[in-house]
Design a protein that fits this description.
This protein is α/β, with parallel strands linked by helices. The chain has a single domain, classed as 3-Layer(aba) Sandwich (Aminopeptidase), CATH 3.40.630. About 35% of the residues lie in helices and about 15% in strands. Strand 5, helix 5 and strand 6 form a beta-alpha-beta unit. Helix 5 packs antiparallel against helix 7. The longest helix has 30 residues. The chain starts with a strand and ends with a helix.
Length: about 270
């Protein structure tokens, strides 16, 4: 099993897809309990939602499930949101704080290191390689990290999440102009709510790779699953009408990002 799938594009935008994979090794699957087997915290159908929206984009997609190891967490295990509820590098609970492993079967340090080497490291090696390739070709690279989450998760946040949740780690991971362009398009999108650096400010991927001074800009988009799924419950199918409407807005956002990147280096 290849832990990462890469589609090489010739444009300046790289789409990261760390949480759409469903592969779990048999050894890990045997240790998960019934809650773990539900895979409820998957970014369901996000790779399908974004497919074809920006023809020249590169995509880097993790094929493994986040319950194996979370590709959007610091490999050192440092919390993204100190003092707030969250899940870790190798999660032992789901987003509702329910255990996902059978008693006594949680991964130990040796197992975590093995998963880092087998899954997390190859994914990020591929992502780094594509960002470097794109920047070498165009003089700039923009990482757009694609995510989704249920709109109501009391363990993680109060109330209902907006539809578009833009994360730039308080403006540090991309140029201010790029953040403003994306924020404006989200605010203007018909029928959707949006926020910049709200509960989700960008995960480890966005924070690690976003180096505007080095011409790598990164932005995370966390979509509320109510914006595109028929229901935020099994079987987590796309709602065709919702998805088509949302794809129009997402396509406009990605196209604007690509145009901005070209203008940034060519002065157009």
């Amino acid at each position: 099993m290849n832990p990462v799938e890469v589609r090489h594009g010739d444009g300046p935008v790289v789409l990261g897809l760390p949480h759409t994979g469903l592969f779990v090794p048999d050894s890990v699957l045997a240790d998960l309990n019934e809650t773990g087997h539900a895979f409820a915290d998957t970014d369901w159908n996000i790779h399908t939602l974004y497919a074809g929206l920006l023809p020249h984009a590169t995509t880097v997609r993790a094929t493994f499930h986040r319950y194996v190891i979370d590709a959007n967490r610091d490999p050192a295990g440092v919390s993204l949101y100190p003092g707030q509820n969250t899940t870790g590098l190798c999660p032992v609970t789901d987003f509702d704080n329910k255990p996902i492993y059978r008693d006594g079967k949680q991964p130990d340090e040796v197992e975590i290191r093995r998963r880092l080497a087998s899954f997390h490291t190859p994914y990020h090696a591929a992502l780094r390689a594509e960002l470097d390739r794109v920047r070498s070709r165009h003089g700039i690279a923009v990482l757009y990290d694609c995510h989704s989450i249920r709109s109501n998760i009391p363990f993680l946040f109060e109330g209902t999440l907006p539809d578009f949740n833009i994360g730039t780690n308080e403006g540090t991971t991309c140029a201010a102009e790029l953040e403003s362009i994306v924020a404006a398009l989200c605010a203007e999108a018909d029928g959707y709510s949006s926020i910049v650096n709200g509960r989700f400010k960008g995960g480890w991927t966005t924070r690690h790779y976003g180096q505007p001074d080095e011409n790598i800009h990164a932005i995370q988009m966390e979509l509320s699953q109510r914006s595109h799924l028929a229901a935020e419950a099994p079987p987590f199918d796309l709602d065709p009408q919702k998805a088509d409407h949302l794809r129009g807005s997402l396509g406009a956002i990605l196209t604007a990002i690509e145009s901005w990147a070209f203008a940034r280096v060519h002065g157009a």
